[in-house]
Amino acid sequence: MAQSGKSIRNRIRILRFHHDEMTQQQLADQVGVTRQTVNAIEGGKYSPSLEVAFRIAHVFGKPIEEVFQFVDASG
Fold this sequence. Notes:
There is one protein chain. By secondary structure, this protein is α+β, with helices and mostly antiparallel strands. It has helices at 12-18, 24-31, 35-42, 50-60, 64-67; strands spanning 6-10, 68-72. It has a two-stranded antiparallel sheet. It is globular and about 35 Å long.
């Protein structure tokens, strides 16, 4: 991703904090993935499938665009 100057950013850590300080494990359980997957997505090391992205947004009651943002750094 970094080579093309494009990446996907997310607000998962902030959203977890505002949802009673939800843990990565709690989010993973609700979404149906592992805690390691949540950690990798949250840290920007892994882009989730569209289905997982929608599931994460649903947990927080937010539109997907409020959880994930596509950023084109090439200007």
